[in-house]
Structure formats: structure tokens, C-alpha cells
ABC transporter permease (Paragemmobacter amnigenus), 318 residues
Amino acid sequence: MHPILKLVVQRIALGLLLLLAVSLLIFLGTEALPGDVAQAILGQSATPEALANLRESLGLNQPSYVRYFQWLGGILTGDFGVALTNGQDIGQAIGQRLGNTLFLATCAAVISVPLAILLGLVAARYNGRWPDKVISGVTLSTISLPEFVAAYFVIFLLTQVIPIFQPVAMVFPGMSFWDRLQAVALPVIVLVLVVLAHMMRMTRAAILNVMQSAYIETAELKGLSPMRVIWQHAFPNAIAPIVSVVVLNLAYLVVGVVVVEVVFGYNALGQYLVDHVAKRDLPVVQAVGLIFAAVYIGLNILADVIAIVANPRLRHPK
């Protein structure tokens, strides 16, 4: 078997095993949450008989390992179950909100990825000089702020000081594309500020590392301009670590936006998760947690595969 194919298969197998382990942790973690599901549904005035009947109908009296395998079997067949609090099909609810989460993540990625790479290239071109210091200082300042602080600052600036946006990101079925873009403008700005510095710093570091190579010196001796040397010779050879960090930040944009969604009231998976944690709706919490884990692990596997394929020693083994 070719070394690349072997490593890719190993990464995928390891990712599946990790996802299985995470599913077990999610199930055990939600089982350990304080409170009684039946009590949360029926209220404090429920009689013991009513609570016992509801626990029986929900299967809560069965051993934990039986319920885990039943839940896992349902997930594998596409059956996420129904929400305990309202009886709504979890798969349909997740499908509606997952689209909103992916829309928000895509908008943030379309802006942040090219901007981070461009700023990284400029910072590497002017390494140690004022453009590098300004770019590094500003981006590091933004990433140092907690997400909710950055969100409230952006809300104050762009809804009160400069009132050009609405503070709540309300989206609903039937909205036009441009209306959606306007609705998610503020959370997109916050997410761009959060992920920009990491990608920019990695781009800068990767470029500076490649710039120490002998072939870069040869290109410079040919009289090529510094920016042309970086773009045509350094950047293509630094693409592997840059792509890896970009993919990892894309994973964050999907699974790490819970705080941003809650602050802006954005109807997506993060908000859905928080609402049902408060209601102790375990099937919803388990399903959303597993989807977040699958997305994060899947994108991490993609980053590993890209790094493997980009390695010339593996592409052309002796």
C-alpha cells in the first residue's frame, strides 16, 4: 500500500474511534447532569405516579449501557429521536438550524481566510518593521478579548455609536440572501476578529521559515522583487501548515460559535443547544454535542490528510 494511502486510512480509522469515544463521553456527561428529566418536564407539582409513568415511557428506568447502545444505534440509522420538552423531531430541528450555523461560518470564513493570508504575507514581507508590528499588535489584541466582550463591543460600536446594524441577528425561512447577509453582519465581524490572528500568525511564521531556504536566496539574487519572491516561491512551499491552521479555524467557526450565537440571538445550533441544556432535554443535548464533535473531528482529519498529501517525501517515496 502506498505510504500516503496507508496514513490516510490510519487517520480516518483513528478519527472514527475517537468519535465513538466522544459519543460515550457525551452520553455519560449528560447522564451526570443534576436534576430529574421527568421532573423538569412535568413540573414540581407532578405526582410520584406520574413521574414513574413518564420515566417508564421514556425508558429512563433501563440501565445506562442499554440506553447508550439504543441511542447510538438510532444515530447510525439517522434517527436522533424526539425532544423531551416539545416532542419535536430532533433531526428536523437540527437540519433547520445547521444550515444557519453553516451560513454564518461560511460568511466568516470567506472574509477571514483571504484577509488572514494577505496580512500574514504583508507581515512577513515587512518582518520587524512597522507594518509587521501594527498587524501583529492589532490582531493579537482582538484575539485576547473573550468572545462575549468582543461581541458586546461590536454591538455598542455599530448599533449605538454608529447605528448601521440591528443588535439581534434574526433569520427566518424565506429571507433573501442579502437580508440574511445583513442580519449576520455583526456576528460575522466578531468571528472574523476572533479567528483572524491565529491564521495570520501561522501564515507569517510559515513564510518566514521558508524564507530561510537556499532557493529563496537564489530567487532574490535573480533580482525578483521581495513580494514576488514571497508569492511565487515562499507561499507555495508554506501552504501545508497554512492550510492545516485554516481548516482547524473552520472547525472552530462551526462548533465554537455558541457564545456568539447566544449573544446575538441567532437561531442556530449553538442557541438550540443552550436552550435545551437549560431544559435538561438530554436527547437534544446529546445529538447536538455529537454533531459538533463529528464536525470538529472530521475537519481535523481533513487537516491531517492535507498535511500528509502536501508532504513531498510521502508523495515521492524512494
Q: What stands out?
A: The two ends are 14 Å apart (CA to CA). DSSP finds 16 helices and no strands in the chain. The mean pLDDT is 85.
